[in-house]
Specification:
- The chain is of the alpha/beta class.
- It folds into three domains: 124 residues, no CATH class; 111 residues, Rossmann fold (3-Layer(aba) Sandwich), CATH 3.40.50; 131 residues, no CATH class.
- Helix content is 51%, strand content 10%.
- It has 17 helices and twelve strands.
- The strands form four sheets. Strands 3-4-2-1-5-6 form a six-stranded mixed sheet, with helices on both faces. A two-stranded antiparallel sheet has the order 7-8.
- Helix 2 packs antiparallel against helix 3 and helix 14 crosses helix 16.
- The longest helix is centred in the middle third of the chain and has 35 residues.
- It is globular, with a radius of gyration of 30 Å.
Length: 519
């Protein structure tokens, strides 16, 4: 997942490559040509012209929004290809909605949007692949020779060391040269890995260094392809001694790429201590109802409709935000979703940057303008999350996604489903609730989710937008009562000594404090 800069430090500029702009103009004409052999027919000239104009406008907008220009380099990657695909899909969708609204696609063959999307995507991806190949060929024909080459011996053949060899050959050709690999497995000796040959075990390091020196090659760097504990207790000190005597730099691949695991012995000790402890009283795992499978299809259907209906509102709010707080219009936060997977939740900005152009701090009371308060009051800043629903990160209704630091002590239940734009906790208090109350309400929803309950939450959300937040005391009491019953059942299942508790529920000693705190 590629992260952007924080919104207060970010910037947005309309940037388009010349090819992208030209291809946005040519692709709809090619679609009509391949479909009918004619670009403009006299019978449907106006409809064809409207489709081409709409496709060009929306293509240029989505190319800028998804920053497809960033991928027009030799660093074009799968992430860039996904962004290009998203941009094409969004441009095609918006074009279809706009043209259908204006002309109901009269005179435009129904297959044109699909043909257009395929042509547009093929051209954009093909241009980027060609650009990358040309850059790679140019860098190969002109290797860097301005620095003295560093001769490297790699110890230990692992998947990480193999990837490191690829990295060196791709981005440090002529600067670092992997001379050979040392590995203690006899069956690997003589084999070549990514062009580097395994020539002996790590115990032969000193004679190999001396032999290279006799041939005029000084080994300046020894790199171990894993953590220090991958070497035997006797081998690592010997390698350190040889490197010190011959003034050779010693490194480890995990450290070089930022993957070094700190204090492995301490981690092992902590893990053993945690395993020895009695598992705490937590909310039992639950089997999700089949409704959550159906719910995903309902989300897709409803989101497609909402995107079409809310598109004009989204454009107006975007223009107002641009005039009020400037660029970028959107900001993101990394939240935890289903299965504790991190995703980027997007919103429309309502706060001005914390510093002015002179670097002076702006008071918090001045950062939220009247326009920002209006957008927040009617929840228009949540509109971009419809795209999160569309790609599967979120649902329309569910537990509100929280920042990693705001997760409750036991988030397993709330992270078992997709988070929602609105939910049972939001319509029964929202910001008026403390973390424990939110968690209890979200758990109650997950255990009682149904289509009828979702419809009820939708109507309650409309009331919340129009009337403001209110505290649902009855819903909170029901949620905590259900939690008490669940904990009591778990305690009884473990056979702990019962202790009288509120509402005549018998629980075990370890759970008493938690239930008393829950009220």
């Amino acid at each position: 997942m590629r992260l952007r800069l924080p919104s207060s430090r970010g910037s947005f500029r309309v940037r388009l490559s010349l090819f992208d702009g030209a291809w946005a103009v040519v692709s709809p004409l090619l679609a009509f040509y391949f479909r009918d052999g004619l670009i403009f027919s006299s019978e449907a000239f106006s409809s064809t012209l409207i489709y081409c104009a709409a496709s060009i406008i929306f293509s240029l907008i989505t190319f800028s929004a998804f920053r497809t220009h960033d991928g027009m380099t030799r660093y074009f990657s799968v992430h860039d290809a996904v962004d290009v695909t998203k941009a094409v899909a969004m441009a095609t969708f918006l074009t279809y909605v706009a043209v259908f609204t204006l002309t109901r696609l009269d005179g435009v063959p129904r297959s044109i949007p699909i043909i257009h999307a395929l042509i547009l995507l093929t051209g954009l991806i093909g241009a980027r692949i060609s650009s990358r190949l040309l850059e790679a060929k140019r860098s190969t024909n002109n290797p860097r020779t301005d620095l003295a080459a560093q001769h490297v011996l790699l110890i230990g053949l692992t998947r990480l060391s193999q990837m490191y060899i690829k990295l060196i050959r791709a981005y440090s050709r002529g600067i670092h040269r992997i001379m050979a690999v040392l590995d203690d497995r006899p069956e690997m000796i003589g084999r070549a890995i990514e062009g580097a040959r395994v020539i002996g075990p790590p115990d032969h390091l000193e004679p190999i260094v001396n032999e290279f020196a006799e041939h005029g090659i000084r080994i300046s760097h020894v790199i171990v392809g894993g953590d220090p504990d991958m070497l035997s207790p006797a081998t690592l000190p010997e390698i350190r001694r040889i490197c010190e005597e011959h003034e050779i730099k010693l490194d480890f691949v995990p450290e070089l790429v930022g993957l070094q695991r700190l204090q492995p012995a301490l981690d092992t000790q902590i893990a053993e201590e945690e395993a020895a402890e009695e598992p705490p009283i937590t909310t039992p795992e639950l089997a999700l109802s089949s409704y959550f499978v159906t719910k995903r299809y309902l989300d897709l259907f409803a989101t497609a409709i909402l995107l079409g209906v809310c598109a004009p509102i989204w454009v107006c709010i975007g223009i107002a935000t641009l005039c009020d707080v400037g660029t970028p219009i959107f900001f993101w936060q990394q939240r935890l979703g289903q299965g504790a997977r991190a995703f980027l939740l997007h919103k429309i900005r309502t706060l001005k940057p914390p510093f002015d152009w002179r670097g002076q701090k702006i008071p918090e009371s001045e950062r939220l303008s009247a326009i920002g308060r209006f957008i927040r009051k009617y929840r228009f800043d949540e509109l971009p999350q419809l795209l999160n629903v569309l790609v599967g990160d979120m649902s329309l209704i569910g537990p509100r996604p929280l920042l990693p630091r705001d997760q409750p002590a036991d988030p397993s239940v709330r992270l078992s489903v997709r988070p929602g734009i609105t939910g049972w906790a939001q319509v029964n208090g929202g910001k008026l609730l403390d973390p424990e109350e939110k968690d209890a309400l979200d758990e109650w929803y997950i255990r009682n989710a149904s289509f009828r309950l979702d419809i009820r939450i939708l109507f309650m959300t409309l009331q919340l937008v129009l009337r403001g937040e209110h505290l649902g005391e009855a819903a909170i009491a029901d949620a905590f009562a259900m939690r008490r019953r669940q904990i009591a059942a778990q305690v009884l299942e473990r056979g702990l000594v019962p202790v009288p508790a509120r509402n005549d529920v018998s629980i075990g000693e370890p759970a008493t404090a938690r239930l008393m705190a829950s009220g």
